[in-house]
Amino acid sequence: MTAPQVVLLDALGTLLELEDPVGGLRRELADRGAPVEASAARAALLREMAYYRAHCDQAADLPALEDLRDRCAEVLRAALPGRAGELPSGEVRAALLAALRFTPFPEVADVLSALRAAGSRLVIVSNWDVSLHGVLQETGLAALVDGVLTSAECGVAKPDPAIFHLALERAGGGASAAALHVGDDPRTDVAGALAAGIAAVLVDRRGEHAAPAPGVRVVRTLEGLLPAAR
């Protein structure tokens, strides 16, 4: 089959995984003399992550990102028990940022390279703050794609069709009918792409989902995209 003219790609859960944040936070806090149990660290992180998700689109530039990180650290500190909750906010912020480590799934680099070699233009479209650019540089993925669009920078988030249309513009103005969106969330990725007139593929790494809509392919890893690009 002919490679799609444009392939839009979600980031977290599709290209990148978050390495054990609970274990990371516990190690960082213990290094600061404030050990916590796994259940307490998990509960505090869930509260911080909920706050982050509700406010990440405010971080469209570096000053706003620094402010958001300060606020997230304070939310986390307030949720931590004992000595950890008494640490200065700056220490909690440093522990939080050190605990959040992203790594590409094993097949990602090879699949992105194969798609580009087959003629596809690749654009990452993600509900993320401006820091995604740094994450992609650190993980080596920035050099493997043709563009990156974050919800914070464009002011609109998936599943709104507008962000998919903006991503197509970032790819050079490809038509919706010649594009494919790949993501791991049935609502934000699949439903959003379909509403924008773009075909969708659901990445279901744990085998948790059935096909969310007629004609939507479900793959376990990005390697499932390669037959469509040949």
UniProtKB/TrEMBL annotation:
It comes from freshwater metagenome. The lineage of its organism: unclassified sequences, metagenomes, ecological metagenomes. InterPro entries: HAD-like_hydrolase_domain (IPR051828), HAD-like_sf (IPR036412), HAD-SF_hydro_IA (IPR006439), HAD-SF_hydro_IA_REG-2-like_cap (IPR044924), HAD_sf (IPR023214). This is Unannotated protein. It holds the Pfam family Hydrolase.
